[in-house]
Predict the structure.
Amino acid sequence: MALSRPSVPGNLFRPSAFAGEAVPFTVTAFREGHDIIGVHLRLLSPSGAESLHSLSALHDGFDRWRVQVAPLEEGVWTFWFEAFGDDFATWEHAADLKIAAGVDAPLMREMGARLLAAAGAEKDRPADERAALKAAAASLRDESVPDAGALDIVRDPAIAAYFHARPAQSLLTPGPRQELLVERARAGVGAWYEFFPRSEGAGRRKDGTVKSGTFRTAKGRLPGVAAMGFDVLYLPPIHPIGEINRKGPNNTLTTKPGDPGSPWAIGSAAGGHDTVHPDLGTLADFRAFVRAAAEEGLEVALDFALQAAPDHPWVAEHPEWFTTLPDGSIAYAENPPKKYQDIYPINFDNDPEGIRAEALRIVRHWIAQGVKIFRVDNPHTKPLQFWEWLISTVNAEHPDVVFLAEAFTRPAPLQGLAQGGFQQSYSYFTWRNTKAELEDFFGWISDDTADFMRPNLFVNTPDILTEYLQYGGRPAYKIRAALAATAGASYGVYAGYELIENVARPGSEENIDNEKYEYKFRDWDAVAASGATIAPYLTRLNEIRRAHPALRQLRGLTIHWSDDDAILVYVKHLPASLSETGHSDTIIIVANVDPHSMRQTTVHIDSSVFGIPPGEDYRVEDLITGESWTWNQDNYVRLDAFVEPVHILHVKETR
């Protein structure tokens, strides 16, 4: 046996899953000659319960076997595969051919009688099963029973079922023991919403200055976020903001009194990473905010950015944590062509142990305030071994803490961070817009890297407003939200997305008048009354996600086909045996990814993926519009981007 999954390339790290995730276990297994084999999976739960699962041959020409299991208990599972000679299946196949052809019939009957008699003597089989097997063995030996009667025994589905449940095994060959880390469901599933608490409740005074929003005023926005169906509320850094080199509107170097600066320029005379910005309130106010969010069904995620403003206490207390240039100045952060003069990156070379201790202290501090999810800023600019150590240390104390990597980086470091412990990661989804790009990307996240990497498909961020959104208007915003909510188990939006805030700073992929550098005044109630929002659409997407467990799975996505280069088709399927509802769940997504046109074409569905034989009719209901149709393998669709650009179709119960 070889080439098994779940696994991580190089086998240096454990593969992972989240509780309730349908995990495919696969292995390559074969033997010499023509005898038939079987393969089992043995699972040992963290509490010590053992279960046995039978794999099915994929018959793909590569000797691969597969079974899906949805582990529910959190912790480290142990699993191994067992291959064996399936003596009954080997005899059944040979006897079916030979007895029917009149070749070696007496020999085949005696071989079968011995197998059935031995199985009938096994005391762990039910009494009625043992009796049936003994009777069948006697019939095979009874010369008065013609070969046609013996053939009926060979083809008896009840006898085959007995041996499927308890195979007649020989040459049992166990594979090596492996481990699978199963984490809490929120580590893999969630709808995220990001807002700046300083903007929620902010107001302009008569003299033109701005009074900052606070944790207390931001609580007023919590019911609106919860009503849209989001699970996680992500806050940018909430710490004091540096005064030195503070950025003004649109990332300018010129500030005026009252400019709040970027929250990612952390630290001032008021404190550092363990402190709350005085304008937002106190630690007690933050804890009350976390409790209020929980009452609305929202879990708060906090930004963890290991960097410092020039006036952060670290700069004076630990200058060795930064890079000093030949002219004596400290290097600021750059991501060409962007410059961040208000931020000093951390240099891990001089005092790695001191930085480790401080980072761990900070994370523990915020856990004590009620935070269990951290969105980590630019983790790929810090040593991978640091994250391996920090996450493993924190998760050993708090297994329910989740880390999301803002890893907009190359594939190797992105995947390395995931393998090293990050439960979720940002991804390239933001820049995958065409049908071909999305087909490749969805296949990659749902299969190639699914054993260790869980993408969070954010549609926008304070840093990212893609050209697709800038120029695609309302259709583009609906398309991207529908794709993110249905293709990934986790997705997210940054506040203002529902308002189609699509005007960029010239020459950039950022919103003009970016909220990173100033307060945003949004009258949510007035916009809702005017209808100039897609909040109802986001709400409906989240309702659909909650009602359909297939959409809360990362795996189980298959790409299907259309005759149009802008019509993307994919299916999410969860079989009844793995569904929390006890019913199968199948969703077909058909999306017009061109936000500027109406498209009509034929889509082609391989319904065998969800248990319906090709060519057989089935009913589908559009969960957005409520319309329903009878579908088959080839189906006409018409999608007008300016009306409804995406079909989200529920297939009536399948297998």
